[in-house]
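thread: overnight batch results

M.L. [08:02]
morning all. the overnight job finished for the chain we discussed friday. pasting input first so we're all looking at the same thing
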Amino acid sequence: MKTPIEHIYSSIDKGDSSTQLVTSQEKFYKESDLPLSILDDYQSAALETLYEISDNTRRIYLSSFSIFEQYCQQHGLNALPADPRTVISFIGQQKETIQSSTGKQLSKQTLTTRLAAIRFYHIQAGFHSPSEHPLVIRVMRGLSRNQHRQTTEYDQQPIMYDELELLLQVIDKQPQLLTRVRDKAILQLGLQGGFRRSELASIEVGHIAFLRDKLKVRLPYSKSNQQGQKEWKVLPKSETFSAYDAVKEWIALAKIESGHLFRSLSRDGQYLRPYQVQDKYAQTPISHRQSGFLRGDDIYQVIKKYCNKAGLNADFFGAHSLRSGCVTQLYENDKDHLYIMSRTGHNDPRSLKHYLKPKD
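M.L. [08:03]
and the structure it wrote out:
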């Protein structure tokens, strides 16, 4: 399967000025022939599609569409473009799929992700998405209301002050100083700021400002801010389990002056791994140009590890538990919705209902 960039390059190589990347069903004016003098400009702009979606979303879409492709190959059907009836049949097969790990059927969210991947690759190839066919929409609407399916209820429990205290006690038993200091900073910053794990992983030293009574963290991008608008989290130093001192201690101990805040450590935890980040445009494998810092999945594993050691069921706690814990704890601390939303970055107060629990 070609990536969006490969679609562009192959079109250029063939001299095709009507490349089908991100087009609609409308007819656009086309030059009979494009001069080679604009080739570099065209390629430079085309590279921006690498940032169209996040790396994690791109990876999920690729995996989901591969599953759809395998289904189509098994039945001799076309995957790109696909007939809406093919997509409906795929939904029928997927909704009955039993997960070996849980013994439950795939959730509606998983099926929605599968359809999002089908839509993404159709649009990238210049085709109208079969996922938008009225009958496909009706099927998914009915699926969302079907109360008889046995699906896995994925709802992580919040990590609040009580749980955090248990986790910090476990971290204090780690023999490596760097590991102790770094992991305390991760958990305390994640809880106080209500960060998503991807946001925690992307924080850089230059995004942090230590003021007299607060810690300010700038988020260049987030799930609710994908256009790079200015967004700050203001974290009071006076709050219980404030991340102020923990983050400051980690930066001083690790001697980090720039780049990603949370770094990878050697296996023995004695030193930081070599740090390297190059531009995404670099013509080298990602593993060779980005290394030495924690990614979202790494932070997820850190939290899972300490939950297991603390006796908290890791099946119910994960990286999202810090974000949900922030919302629930602030609510328990009698903060209003606007205050909580300013901390977490939620745009809609209805989104907070999922996290709020009645007080004792």
